[in-house]
Amino acid sequence: MKISEMEREEYVLPGNTACHGCPSTICLRTVLKALKGRAILVIPACCTSVYMGPFPNSAIKVPVFNTAFASAAATASGIKASLEMQGDDTEVVVWAGDGGTYDIGLQALSGAAERGEDIIYICYNNEIYSNTGIQRSGATPFGAWTTTTWAGKTEHRKDVSEIMLAHGIPYVATASTGYLKDLYEKVKKAKEIKGFRYIEILAPCPPGWRFPMDKTVHMGKLAVESGMWILLESVNGRFRFTGVSRAIAEGKRKMRDLEEYLISQERFSHLSKKEIDEIRRYVQEKWSRLIKLEGEVDAAIAKFYV
Ligand SMILES: Cc1ncc(C[n+]2csc(CCOP(=O)(O)OP(=O)(O)O)c2C)c(N)n1
Ligand code: SF4
Predict the structure, then answer these.
(1) What is the residue with the minimal CA distance to atom 6 of ligand 2?
(2) What's the pLDDT tens digit per position in 162-214?
(3) How many domains are there within the chain?
(4) What backbone phi and psi angles, to 5 degrees, belong to 148?
(5) Residue 27: predicted pLDDT
(6) In which order are the strands placed within the sheet that holds 120-125?
(7) Residue closest by Cα to atom 8 of ligand 2
(8) What is the pLDDT of residue 143?
(9) How far is Cα 3 from Cα 180, in angstroms, rounded to an integer?
(10) Atom of ligand 2 nearest to the CA of 19
(11) CATH for 136
(12) Rounded to the nearest whole angstrom, what is the distance from the C-alpha of residue 130 to the centroid of ligand 1?
């Protein structure tokens, strides 16, 4: 598919109050185009619930239910159940930050996934609580400066996409603000699948990560090209790398130096060589774990059918 073949209709309107270069607006625009606007959004407290505008005004051209932080997936489950009773197949989509996904809404997310609710849950992961002033979250990477980790975060991030893989749901994918066509296609694919679907988008945030606001898409590409963020997809348990990450996993493309990604953001400007090496070790370990996972799935399926 060419980018010019994307849906032309706009569902995220100009004049909203997001920062210039906001990854959330860029990606939500893409997601709603992929769904052709046939969606009800459920949004817990986050930047999106602020930049969409105060009631009764809204910069988002689909119905939005603003819900309490901890309950986005539960609220979406309820809305879907009531639509089903009315024979309405409108897609119900949670659009939440990493604070609302990794930390505060994790129990509702896990419960809805385990119950197999027929909803799409999308986390735009900017690796911080940006709306309230750049605090650390469970998604903040090791070493990153935030207003609650002045000397750099001392723990590694957890990975909710891997946690969702472990739930055995029909669709799990990661995407990046750097590759909008990939995001568009993954949302379209998710729409065709029934059951609980989870998509997580890396969302480089200019004020939170401290880089110039015209570099959002570039940063989203650099994250993938340096191996720091991995593009993957799992359809009914069949796991595979996608896009640039697939080329890297197959040895067709070399990773860019991780340091190039780190030094282009001021949040990492204080890092020592030892800390950079620790991030490198963590990234390599994650790659080996996932490469093994892909290999194991392929081997198992091959045994099944040969
Ligand atoms: C229960 C509860 N705790 C705290 C808040 C304050 N609060 C509103 S938005 C927000 C940060 C959200 O972070 P995230 O989900 O990562 O989204 P982002 O702001 O980065 O878009 C916080 C802490 C709240 N609204 N409700
Ligand atoms: S702080 Fe970041 S995520 Fe929030 S509106 Fe600004 S650019 Fe977007």
Answers:
(1) 19
(2) 999 999 999 999 999 999 999 999 999 999 999 999 999 999 999 999 999 99
(3) 1
(4) -110, 5
(5) 98
(6) 64-67, 39-44, 91-97, 120-125, 197-202, 171-176, 232-235, 238-241
(7) 22
(8) 98
(9) 8
(10) 6
(11) 3.40.50.970
(12) 8
Q: Is the pLDDT of residue 306 over 60?
A: no
Residues above pLDDT 70, as percent of the chain: 97
Residue 156 CA, ligand 2 centroid: distance in Å: 23
Range of the domain at 259: 11-305
Q: Which pLDDT score, from 0 to 100, does residue 61 have?
A: 97
Decide if 1 is inside a domain: no
Domain membership flag for residue 2: no
Ligand 1 centroid, distance to 96 Cα (angstroms): 10
Does residue 6 fall inside a structural domain? no
Which string of b and e fits 188-215 if b means at least 16 CB within 10 Å? ebbbeeeebbbbbbbbbbbbbbebeeeb
Whether the predicted pLDDT of 59 surpasses 60: yes
Residue-level length of the chain? 306
- The overall average pLDDT reported for the chain is 95
Residue-wise pLDDT for 124-149, tens only, equals: 999 999 999 999 999 999 999 999 99
Task: Report pLDDT digits (tens) over 22-40.
Answer: 999 999 999 999 999 999 9
Residue 141 forms part of a structural domain? yes
CB 95 within 8 A of CB 48: yes
